[in-house]
């Protein structure tokens, strides 16, 4: 829900006191003093928002780095991998945008308020601000003479009303005495004299009261002029604050409003374009040519015996060439089983992938299963070329080194260990050619990625 300034925010306040009364200018003085407090609160508001932007940017950066590592070490490939990473590119760009926002909020908006405070509010040695004290002194000076006449008027008014009250009491006594035959003529005469005296006092106090009122009324125009002049000074001072706050809040909006940021808009156009560029057919073809039926194969051919020929070992280990095993044979030629060529793809997206077709591993991807993508050989069902039961876990020299997990890892196969970042366990076999180590954790022996742990010491 949005809130807009309207007349409802400026409706009259039900307050019986008037600015023209003695001392009522203090509300206007307090408004000046509040201006400094409000500007301080505005700096706090902006600095807190800047801190939020900074924390959000750091969270995005951390999230991007974490997932970049996971994607690089994961099995995704090709243009879909690029689409995955587009989300991280977006996060890095948004991180930069929000860091810029934090910088602008603090170095432009926040610093401008501090500068305005320094220029418009000058602190006194003892207490308060010079501008506030000067305004208060100006109001007191403008009100001094009128306040004196007003107090005099109140005194004469009070005296006049007191005399009127005494006169009324004396008249009531005279009326009672006239109807009381038991009173002596002297007593009645005294009461009548008291009435006459009270009436005379009423006339005198009335004249003084009317004179005081005439003096105060005559001074009203001068009083209103002096007070109005001083009030306008405070209005001008407050107008500067209101205009400055409006400008500041406009700058605040300008920094926060990303809808008008061309870089921000371009960021998401690039993001969706990367996603739309993802092509499953091209990715499948890339896989076919690098890890599938499109790969070249060293097909065995018969050759006469020669001392220069090197026999192929029948030892059953990961990555052994030679298909399903058999007698030692010599390799004399290469023949491709695919009618496709890696150079059929001219898309720049795939240029780096095509150039790496001779590489034995997809970037960032290691595998310890029975599929060795490095040489295109697949061995299954416990045949030669596959890892025999327990080979990875039981063969080789044990080293017994304490290591610490750098990342979380959840096992994919039953012979793998689960890792939790920061935990200590024992490595009993160093990294093999496929990038896997053997470790023991809580009495359980299993494989784990070598890059996921470092020496604990």
Question: What descriptors fit this protein?
Answer:
457 residues; 5-stranded antiparallel sheet; 8 helices; two-stranded antiparallel sheet; alpha+beta
Overall strand count: 9
Shape: rod-shaped
H/E series, N to C?
HHHHHHEEHEEHEEEEE
Query: What would you report as the Rg, rounded to the nearest angstrom?
Result: 48 Å
> Structural class, please?
alpha+beta
Helix content: 55-70%
Low-pLDDT stretches: 310-390
Mean pLDDT: 81
Q: Distance N terminus to C terminus?
A: 57 Å
Number of helices: 8
Structure overview:
The structure is a single chain. Mean pLDDT is 81; it is low at 310-390. The two termini are 57 Å apart. The protein has a five-stranded antiparallel β-sheet, with no helix packed on it. It has 457 residues and is α+β, with helices and mostly antiparallel strands. It has eight helices and nine strands.
